[in-house]
Design goal:
mainly alpha
Length: 239
């Protein structure tokens, strides 16, 4: 990047390049923005690794849970959800730990567990939103502080500061705003992108959990089959 401002005489300040402005503008606000950038990069890499449907809602886990629930193999189901960390397994882990109750209580437990699981994934990307909103504010604070210093120096010199001092001082102050925007734009873009992904996956996960919970018997017993109901009805009629 070339000089941000040029002098009236046509010669740029010696250290007005991007790196020169960075070194001359290095202060507590720059440190905060750099730390925010490192944290943001870490979160983005983590999102790329974790926020995926194949990790949150893998088809292998969903199929295995469905087969075990339909077959009524409760012990195998408990053993599987104890080690599996997929969305439906974590929800069923809470449901099975709560014990068998009536159908309404089972569904209520599943809804609470599914809501907590959705919140867990939204919390994983929320720091990007916080950093993206704080970045410009920190940059603006650094700009205001730089302008205060520049005009304080102008006042101390009795208003004799030349164009070089003013242009370089103001450009150094505005450099904090540039850093803040450079931090905020990618953070908010990535946050919006992954928020839609998390919303889509969690919505599907709640549907899958509802289907799995409906396969679980309530009160520790299964409902009577049709073949068992017919003889009972005949005996009642004869009586």
């Amino acid at each position: 990047m070339m000089c941000i401002s040029t002098l009236a005489a046509g010669s740029p300040p010696a250290n007005a390049g991007l790196w020169g402005l960075f070194t001359q503008s290095f202060d507590v606000f720059t440190v905060l923005l750099l730390v925010g950038s490192l944290v943001a990069v870490t979160i983005i890499v983590r999102c790329m690794l974790d926020v995926r449907e194949s990790r949150i809602l893998p088809e292998v886990s969903v199929n295995r849970l469905t087969d075990l629930a339909r077959a009524g193999r409760e012990e195998d189901l408990r053993a599987f959800v104890r080690t599996d960390e997929s969305f439906p397994s974590r929800v069923l882990r809470e449901v099975l730990a709560a014990g068998r109750r009536d159908r309404e209580s089972i569904r209520e437990t599943a809804e609470i567990a599914a809501s907590d699981e959705c919140s867990r994934w939204f919390r994983a990307i929320e720091p990007l939103n916080i950093i993206g909103n704080l970045g410009p504010l920190i940059g603006l604070a650094g700009t205001v502080w730089g302008m205060i210093i520049a005009f304080t120096s102008l006042g101390e010199s009795g208003g004799q500061a030349g164009p070089t001092d003013l242009s370089l001082g103001i450009s150094k102050a505005l450099f904090h705003t540039l850093l803040g925007l450079t931090l905020a734009i990618p953070c908010l873009l990535v946050f919006g992108f992954y928020r839609s992904i998390v919303d889509r996956i969690c919505t599907r996960g709640m549907v899958v959990c509802t289907q799995l919970v409906d396969l679980l018997p309530a009160d520790g017993t299964k409902g009577p089959s049709e073949s068992e109901l017919k003889p009972a009805a005949r005996e009642k009629a004869h009586a």
